[in-house]
Design goal:
heterodimer; A: mainly alpha; B: alpha+beta; 16 helices; about 20% strand; globular
Chain lengths: ~325, ~550
């Protein structure tokens, strides 16, 4: 087990290095750059632009810029934003809470509801419930989040005036209840797609298990259907879901981009978009590394967890 | 079923959304402003209430002298003061100085070389320390400090012999006369020496994230990606402040910005405002004041004068006749912008109203081209001396109204035998080397030509400002005319506005005649705020709406 872990960690480090090199190359070789936002400023001259470039260290050869960035990175210094000169790490952490709050809530909602719908759909296959769940999932997967968010705002904020149109909290309030009210719409809109995904996976996984020999044995022993379901089916069907959760973990960081924009949620997704818009390379690189690390950790955790609960993986 | 399926299901939505929003956000970073005020009720006796201003870009740079974009100036105007400000009428009005220096009051010597500024007494920084002439000296020196990532050196580079005569008086000498300098000073916020002066690295000083100024509002906090909170400075020397709390809220998407204005989450729609397509609806909203406000930016078709097609003045004139300006404004821009013949905003003191009016006439255009010897070839496209009258036109990709303008021009140009090919680029590429190094044939571009409120346009028109030829400036159309060079030099040395006016009116005439770019219209933006917010006054001479936010207040309901 330890050797497995160590080799996985080693691979991860190599992978991170590759990600950083490719990311850096793609970013800096793309046409345009951090200076173009200043070009049309009244009174701007080529000299001034050159001076700004030198101040930002953009006039150095690319490999030097990369090695410099890497060296600082390894020493724990993620660099400073071109836009506001803040340390990259503190910028990322500043946006992390908002994202975790929103994505955490929506993930809990989607896992609980998705699992329930999936199991129920599988046990009552071809029922009205199963059909409506299937159609519902199709619809949810097809609707763009952006559009759905705007429609929700139109109905619940503009027409019914039940919920705030956006923001994480009311400035000057910030009580628990205030946060909760602001969370409802964005987390539900976000959860919609994930519920659909989870319910489809869960349905398939449950169906796989239901037809296994041990379930038939359990039934034959005369256990109540409910007991069979809870004891033998659900537990086994949830196994593949661990991997799915591990893969979904990184989407927590970037996945809410659209919802964050529609609901003016100050999270990481929007930070990423903003930073790209300003060609703020240090922040983009920081976010890239941050999410790469998250992907690797998520996958590693999922693999370890599966190996832990399912001896077949460990032995095989 | 595999893990991969899941990722594929989720990814297109995200990627499409990203593209969609990147396109939406592009091409809108425009300098601005002007208009009208409606002050009815008297302001409250002490700062009252909270006001939320929505900006579609996030202010992130709070030291006003570090490299920044226009949205940051919204915060600068709230926290800091310059020596004097520019009013909507284009006049200077004292702020930290007790009077605006001029030749008449002896503040500036007749040759424009010696300056003397008297400062207000008893002004305090937000931390309670007194403001003095030392702070002014420190600020002007900071701008040209080679170790500082200074935003603007223009003008400040000419300052010599800065002398603090007394805590309330400072003098200096200019290396050479530079008439736009008052306008530049009106954009130069004074920063505290006692805080920044002691910092070893002023680029990363804590001050930059918790600014201390003399302005009407004090810094409270910034929640990155979300908002900035400021509180009333009750010791403020000037008019105001009348608001207890001022919140700058960041709402990146313009549709969402407008929606939050409708729901009342935002009291004032700031930078990037309401999109023209929402104007009709916005006008009818209950409890909101919505108005069309002209901005200093002028939209034009710019030519690369070094391309053989455009060296012939007849071609530029003919193309101008082939543009249906009014239809573009009415049909594509909802009738909001004002057609113009000049690059100077019509509200400016220096605007020349007597320029010849453009007339849309394909027949005239054809005749001009015929007379100049541009004969249609076999494919219907005109040519002369082996040069086909064909070229590309570029602008920022994703600005769909501009793209429609291009398509419309493409048709009218074709009617007179000119071939236009559309070739658009992402903003970051368009305004990079492609623009600065004159790699285009022609462009559609919106530019604020002025230096603040000053009519000086040397950076755009002077022959030595062509970057592609090693100059320093923004003369990307590679326009060179000795007469304009001479006039610009002359205008830059005259300090009496009435005399300067003649020079700049003449320059406008020459530009209208030479047509290195075809002026289309002066921008208009749709501004909005809640009924009851008083003193929101547009000012075409500054880059941001909140230039006078210290005087804003809530009328009692």
């Amino acid at each position: 087990m330890l050797r497995y872990l160590l080799s996985r960690l080693w691979q991860s480090l190599i992978l991170l290095l590759l990600v950083s090199m490719i990311g850096f190359a793609v970013l800096t070789l793309a046409p345009g750059g951090p200076l173009s936002q200043f070009t049309l400023t009244p009174g701007m001259t080529k000299e001034a632009l050159d001076r700004i470039a030198a101040q930002m260290g953009l006039d150095r050869p690319l490999p030097i810029q990369y090695l410099d960035w890497l060296r600082h990175m390894l020493m724990g210094d993620w660099g400073h934003s071109y836009r506001d000169n803040q340390p990259v790490l503190s910028i990322i952490l500043g946006h992390l809470f908002a994202t975790l709050l929103l994505m955490g809530t929506s993930m809990v909602i989607s896992i609980v509801l998705g699992t329930w719908i999936g199991i129920r759909g599988a046990t009552k296959r071809y029922s009205i419930f199963d059909y409506s769940a299937t159609i519902g999932a199709m619809v949810a997967l097809s609707i763009p989040t952006f559009w759905f968010g705007l429609i929700a705002i139109y109905i619940f904020s503009l027409k019914l005036k039940w919920l705030p149109a956006g923001n994480m909290y009311t400035v000057g309030n910030g009580s628990f209840g205030d946060y909760a009210i602001h969370l409802i719409m964005p987390s539900l809109v976000l959860a919609l797609v994930n519920i659909a995904v989870w319910s489809r996976y869960m349905r398939t996984a449950t169906l796989d298990v239901i037809n296994q020999d041990f379930v038939r044995t359990a039934k034959a022993k005369g256990l109540s259907p409910r007991r069979v379901l809870m004891r033998h089916v659900v537990g086994n069907a949830l196994l593949p879901m661990i991997t799915l959760a591990g893969v979904q973990l990184p989407t927590v960081l970037g996945g809410a981009l659209v919802a964050e924009t529609v609901f003016t949620w100050p999270g990481m997704g929007r930070l990423f978009l903003d930073s790209l818009g300003y060609s703020d390379y240090p922040v983009v690189m920081g976010l890239l590394m941050f999410s790469a690390i998250f992907v690797l950790i998520g996958n590693l955790l999922a693999d370890l967890l599966v190996a832990f609960v399912d001896p077949r993986v460990r032995l095989g | 079923m595999s893990d991969a399926n899941d990722t594929i299901l989720l990814k297109p939505t995200r990627r499409q959304a990203l593209t969609m929003m990147a396109l939406g956000a592009s091409g809108l970073i425009m300098p601005n402003i002007l208009g009208r005020s409606e002050a009815f009720a008297a302001p409250p006796a002490k700062p009252t209430g909270q006001l939320v201003i929505g900006f579609s870009q996030e202010p992130t740079v709070f030291n006003p002298h570090l490299i920044h974009i226009e949205v940051d100036e919204g915060i600068h105007f709230s926290v800091f003061d310059p020596l004097f400000i520019v009013t909507p009428e284009g006049k200077f009005s004292p702020s930290l100085a007790t009077e605006v220096p001029s030749v008449e009051n002896g503040g500036i010597s007749a040759d424009g070389l010696n300056w003397k500024i008297k400062l207000r007494d008893g002004v305090k920084w937000h931390d309670g320390k007194p403001f003095t002439a030392e702070d002014v000296k420190f600020t002007l020196e900071l701008m040209v400090d080679p170790d500082f990532r200074s935003w603007r050196k223009t003008g400040h580079e000419l300052v010599r012999d800065l002398t603090v005569v007394s805590p309330t008086e400072i003098t200096w000498r200019m290396e050479k006369p530079f008439a736009p300098y008052p306008s530049i000073l009106a954009m130069t916020f004074i920063v505290p020496k006692h805080i920044l002066g002691a910092e070893k690295d002023k680029n990363t000083a804590p001050f930059n994230n918790a600014p201390v100024g003399t302005g009407p509002f004090k810094w409270v906090e910034r929640i990155p990606g979300d908002h900035i909170t400021l509180a009333a400075n009750t010791d403020y020397f000037g008019d105001g402040p009348y608001l207890e709390t001022l919140v700058y809220k960041y709402v990146p998407d313009l549709t969402v910005l407008y929606t939050q204005f409708k729901t009342g989450d935002i009291d004032v729609v700031g930078l990037q405002w309401i999109t023209p397509d929402h104007y009709e609806e916005a006008k009818a909203l209950d409890g909101k004041v919505v108005a069309v406000v002209p901005a200093a930016t002028v939209e034009s078709i710019g030519f690369n004068m070094e391309r053989p097609q455009f060296k012939d003045p007849a071609v530029r004139e003919a193309l101008y006749h082939a543009i249906d300006k009014q239809t573009i404004i009415d049909a594509l821009y909802y009738g909001l912008p004002t057609p113009t013949e000049s690059y100077i905003p019509q509200q400016s003191f220096y605007y020349n109203p007597d320029l010849p009016k453009q007339e849309f006439s394909p027949d005239k255009a054809k005749k001009i081209l015929d007379d100049a010897g541009w004969k249609p070839g076999a494919d219907g496209i005109r040519a002369k001396d082996g040069v086909r009258l064909a070229f590309t036109n570029s602008t920022t990709a994703g600005n769909h109204i501009r793209e429609q303008v291009q398509q419309f021009m493409q048709q009218t140009f074709k009617d007179i035998g000119v071939e236009l090919t559309i070739s658009n680029l992402p903003p970051a590429v368009m305004w990079g080397d492609y623009w600065t190094m004159s790699k285009f044939d022609s462009v559609v571009v919106g530019i604020n030509f002025q230096t603040g409120s000053d009519p000086d346009t040397s950076d755009y028109f002077r022959s030595t400002a062509i970057t592609a030829k090693g100059g320093a400036g923004q003369n990307s159309w590679q326009y060179a005319n000795p007469e304009v060079d001479k006039l610009l030099a002359e205008g830059g040395q005259i300090f009496v506005p009435e005399e300067r006016k003649k020079v700049y009116q003449k320059i406008q005439e020459v530009m209208r005649h030479d047509l290195p770019f075809l002026p289309l219209f002066q921008y208009a933006t749709v501004r909005g705020h809640k009924v009851g917010v008083e003193n929101v006054t547009p000012n075409i001479n500054v880059r941001i709406d909140t230039w006078n936010v210290g005087t804003w207040y809530w009328a009692k309901a």
